[in-house]
Each structure stands twice: as structure tokens, then as C-alpha cells.
Write a structure and sequence with these properties.
- The protein has about 500 residues and is α/β, with parallel strands linked by helices.
- Helix content is about 45%, strand content about 15%.
- The chain has 3 domains: about 25-230 and about 435-445, Aldehyde Dehydrogenase, Chain A, domain 1 (3-Layer(aba) Sandwich); about 235-415, Aldehyde Dehydrogenase, Chain A, domain 2, CATH 3.40.309; about 455-490, no CATH class.
- The strands form 4 sheets. A 7-stranded mixed beta sheet has the order 10-13-14-9-8-15-16, sandwiched between helices. It has a 6-stranded mixed beta sheet with strand order 5-4-3-6-7-17, with helices on both faces. Strands 1-2-18 form a 3-stranded antiparallel beta sheet.
- α12 (about 370-375) packs parallel to α13 (about 390-400).
- It starts with about 20 loop residues before the first helix and ends with a helix.
- The chain binds nicotinamide-adenine-dinucleotide (NAD).
């Protein structure tokens, strides 16, 4: 099995003393811990969610500017995938929170009567939310909404790579939610120090290499983790589908945010005949969505840093010019990389790890079965997309593969359905969130049982066990007799 140990991670500073002093980090954690109220009522939780909504609504322009500075994100995309998306997520949680947070009565078996039992949802305490740079607003504030809904206090660590958004969020979260949220800004040294603290849950979104660091640090305190990771999300296309319509959707899903989307189609699998027919449709779709020169399009984003652009152009340099179907042009000064479609062998240089940029390899396979075989030989992906009208093909992918999510004929949309869990499996992540899944991720389901002292029905199980043993033996005998009777009936 191939493993996608990511080179996306920032290099760890070899000489960093782990014990280095970071009073601001320690103070942020101490403040969030001191602010925790174990029995925060529903009204106070709803108030926090309202304030989070106010933060987003009242500062839309500042957030859009920061997203444009970091990622060249067009305002419409900023709304669709970050600000508006998160507002919808919060509204959905707010609407249902009373129901989710209410205790759930659970019937007790007759042998325990009289007694009552219920499940109570408790906050975990103080949780850490660590976010990456590609959707730097949504991936901070959406898990934050779940954590606040469940009644926790939160330490937030935005990505230092999207520095403009990090600065804006630090200021806004302090202003709107400073009583329950602390923000730690900074890079590897600050995060390393942060992870030395004991949290009640760590919610990390990012690459698998850093996830291993996060999980190891959390293990020191037996802290549970949610890991929202990435990987290579394959897309199957076959001749039964409308290739023009499929191409438009694939191009949209791939080149949104300049390909820097964890659930973007990483590569396309298809038979050589299908891929040959798909190529011109992809070229047409790129022109339709981004114009003849996507560099001039106000709907196309930028690569987050020059370092990330260099990684991508380094990958492209390994592709022979004859295998570039469209795009390929880079402008380092602008952090621009054109929407690029290339031909690739299943074991080509683009198939080693998650691409996480606007390069779409078309990878020929013999059949749908061969595609399934290829997918199963690699890490379980975060998303799998199938473009087919053939029921047996759809069933084949549904039954024979495993992935965080599976979507037919539409990339990315599995994220937008609030009733669905969003998370990976295996190398693509552990745990899930969105909607009710966020609430349960950040809550502890506590078992509560209440039994009156009188009558003392527990006498039956108190030692000495002689009488009980006799009764149990009699009961067991009775069961055996019943079984035999059933056996006779069946005969
Ligand atoms: P990143 O570099 O911003 O890192 C994420 C977080 O880890 C940041 O807060 C950063 O400060 C911290 N960090 C980085 N190096 C560290 C170290 N050595 N020690 C401790 N902390 C460290 O983001 P990234 O990892 O490059 O993000 C891209 C990856 O995230 C891709 O693999 C993508 O697929 C994945 N992703 C997953 C999801 C999801 O929801 N499943 C969403 C977005 C991105």
C-alpha cells in the first residue's frame, strides 16, 4: 500500500528547544481554562453562537480582504465557501441545539427497576482547534461553532501560512468572544509549546505528517483527537455519462481556490477512450469558467505562498510537454499557476502524493474494476467521486471502496449537506464534524442512573452468593429447557 506522507508540512526546526518560554501561549491556555463553566446553560451557548454570527456578518469586508490577500480568493468564493458557508453551519446548529443538548431518557431493564436512566451531554472542557491555510476562515470557525455549542472554551490556532486571515481572526475573536475563546498566533515553535499543554480535545485539520506530531503530543495526556486530513481523492469518469456536463463539474471542483481544497478531485481515472473524449471537454470547461487567460479572470485564486508554488511547479517540471493538455503556465511574482490538465501514468510523479494545487492528471485504467483495484491499493481517500449513469458501476464503487465521503456526479457537495458527517477514514482522518456530528464530537455522553434506596432490589445480588447461585442455575436450566422446546418445535 502506498502511503501519502505529505511534503506539504512546514519543515520542523531541528534545533528548537521544546522547553523554550512562550508566556503568551501559556497565558492563552490558562485564560481559556479559567473561563470554562461546566454547566453553561443553553441560553449562554446560543448567545456565543449569535456573537460568532455577528462577527462574520459585521466583518465580512475585512475577512474578504484578508482572504484576497492570502489566497486571491474572489469575494463570491469567499462567501460561498467560507463566510456564508460558516453562517449556514452556525444557523443549523443553533436551530437544533436545544434538542441535541437535552437529556435523553433511556428505559431501564426490568431487572434494574425501579430506576431511571438518561444520557446527559456534557462539554469536554477546554479544547484546541488547529486550522490550515486553505479555507482559513471556515476551518477555524466551523469547528469552533461546534465546540461552543457543546459548552466548551476554546483555544484557536489559525494557520500562520494565511497570515492576513490569522491576524484578522485573532483581533475579531478577542473582540467578540474573548470571554470563551483565546487565539494563539504563530508557527511551529508556538504550536509545539501549545501542544505541550493538556487539552480535553484536540481538533486538528491539516496534513498527515503534522497530524502524527499532534496525535503523539495528545497521547502524552490521553487527550482524544479529531484529525481532519487529506490525501488523493480520485474521480472516476466513464462513457455512460454526459462528458461535457461532467467536465464542467470536475473543472469547478478542481480549480476552486486554485486547487487548494482537501476534497478536490485529485486525479481522474478512466479508460483511454473515455479520457481521450474527456480532454477537449475539460479544455472547453476551463475556458468557459475562467476565460481564455485565467490569469486575468477575477474568479480564479492564487497559490498561498511562493514555497507552495515551487512545490507545484517542481511537480509540473517532471511532466513532458507533450503530456500537458492545457495550462502549465506559472507567474511566481503573482503566485499564479494556470488551471492545468495533464496526462499521467498510474505510477507517474503526480501520483505519489496529494497534489493540492491546480494540476489535474488524467490517469488511464483498463476498466472500472481496475480503477477500484487501484483505489484499494492506496490510502483510503477523503473523497471519492463517480461520474457514471451505469448502475452496476455505481454499485461497484459504493460496495468495494472505502473513503471519507462518496459523491456521484458532483464533487465537493457532500460537505454542504449539514446532516452528513464530514471526515476521513484511515490516512484521510479520524472522527467527523458538521451539524450534529460537531456537537457530539465536542461533547461527552455521560451515563446517569438514579435508583431509589428502597425497595432494595439489589439484595438479590449481594453476597453471600449461595442463594443467588441456586437461582441463576435454575434460570439457566429454565433457558435450556426453553431452547430444547424450541428445537423440538423447529423439527
Ligand atoms: P498548515 O501548514 O497551515 O498546518 C496546519 C496547522 O498545523 C497550522 O495551524 C500549523 O501552525 C500547524 N503546524 C504546521 N507544522 C507544524 C509542526 N511541525 N508542529 C506542530 N504544528 C504544526 O496546513 P497544511 O497541513 O499544509 O494543510 C494542507 C493539508 O490539510 C492538506 O493535506 C489538505 O488536504 C488538508 N486539509 C484537510 C481538510 C479536511 O477538512 N479534512 C481541510 C483542509 C485541508
Amino acid at each position: 500500500m502506498t502511503s501519502t506522507h505529505s511534503t506539504l508540512a512546514a519543515p520542523a526546526p531541528e534545533d528548537l528547544p521544546v522547553t523554550e518560554d512562550f508566556p503568551a501561549v501559556d497565558a492563552a491556555v490558562a485564560r481559556a481554562r479559567a473561563a470554562f463553566v461546566p454547566d453553561l446553560d443553553l441560553e449562554a451557548r446560543l448567545d456565543r453562537l449569535h456573537r460568532l454570527e455577528d462577527l462574520l456578518r459585521e466583518n465580512r469586508a475585512a475577512l474578504e480582504d484578508a482572504l484576497a490577500a492570502d489566497l486571491g480568493k474572489p469575494p463570491a468564493e469567499a462567501w460561498l465557501t467560507e463566510i456564508g458557508f460558516t453562517l449556514e453551519e452556525i444557523a443549523g446548529i443553533r436551530k437544533e441545539l436545544g434538542r441535541w443538548a437535552a437529556p435523553v431518557r433511556i428505559p431501564v431493564p426490568l431487572s434494574l427497576a425501579p430506576a431511571r436512566s438518561r444520557i446527559e451531554h456534557q462539554p469536554l472542557g477546554t479544547v484546541l482547534v488547529m486550522a490550515p491555510w486553505n479555507y482559513p476562515v471556515q476551518l477555524v470557525l466551523s469547528p469552533l461553532a461546534g465546540a461552543l455549542a457543546a459548552g466548551n472554551t476554546v483555544v484557536v490556532k489559525p494557520s500562520e501560512v494565511s497570515a492576513s486571515v490569522s491576524a484578522v481572526l485573532a483581533e475579531l475573536l478577542e473582540r467578540y468572544l474573548g470571554d470563551c475563546v483565546s487565539v494563539v498566533e504563530g508557527g511551529v515553535p508556538e504550536t509545539t509549546r501549545l501542544l505541550e499543554h493538556r487539552f480535553d480535545h484536540v481538533f486538528y485539520t491539516g496534513n498527515g505528517t503534522v497530524a502524527r506530531i499532534v496525535m503523539a503530543a495528545a497521547a502524552e495526556h490521553l487527550t482524544p483527537v479529531t484529525l481532519e486530513l487529506g490525501g488523493k481523492s480520485p474521480t472516476w469518469v466513464d462513457g455512460s455519462t454526459d462528458l461535457r456536463a461532467a467536465a464542467r463539474r470536475i473543472v469547478w471542483g478542481k480549480f476552486l481556490n486554485a486547487g487548494q481544497t482537501c476534497v478536490a478531485p485529485d486525479h481522474v481515472l478512466g479508460t483511454p477512450e473515455t479520457l481521450a473524449a474527456l480532454e477537449p471537454e475539460l479544455v472547453r470547461a476551463v475556458a468557459e469558467l475562467y476565460g481564455e487567460d485565467p490569469r486575468r479572470s477575477d474568479s480564479y485564486g492564487r497559490i498561498v505562498t511562493e514555497r507552495h508554488l515551487e512545490r507545484l511547479t517542481g511537480l509540473l517540471a517532471q511532466i513532458p510537454a507533450g503530456d500537458v493538455v492545457c495550462g502549465g503556465r506559472a507567474e511566481p511574482g503573482e503566485r499564479y499557476l494556470a488551471p492545468t490538465v495533464v496526462r499521467s501514468a498510474p505510477d507517474g510523479p503526480l501520483m505519489a502524493e496529494e497534489i493540492f494545487g491546480p494540476i489535474l492528471p488524467l490517469v488511464p485504467v483498463r476498466s472500472a474494476e481496475h480503477a477500484v483495484e487501484l483505489i484499494r491499493s492506496r490510502d483510503k481517500p477523503l473523497a471519492l467521486y463517480v461520474f457514471s449513469e451505469d448502475k452496476t458501476v455505481k454499485e461497484l464503487f459504493r460496495r468495494r471502496t472505502s473513503s471519507g465521503g462518496l459523491a456521484f456526479n458532483a464533487p465537493l457537495l457532500q460537505l454542504s449537506s449539514p446532516g452528513l458527517p464530514f471526515g476521513g477514514v484511515g490516512e484521510s482522518g479520524t472522527g467527523a464534524y458538521h451539524g450534529k456530528f460537531s456537537f457530539t464530537t465536542f461533547s461527552h455522553a455521560r451515563a446517569v442512573l438514579d435508583k431509589p434506596l428502597a425497595p432494595d432490589t439489589l439484595r438479590l445480588v449481594y453476597p453471600p452468593y449461595r442463594g443467588l447461585r441456586t437461582r441463576l442455575a435454575a434460570a439457566a436450566l429454565g433457558r435450556r429447557r426453553t431452547r430444547r422446546r424450541h428445537a423440538v418445535t423447529e423439527i
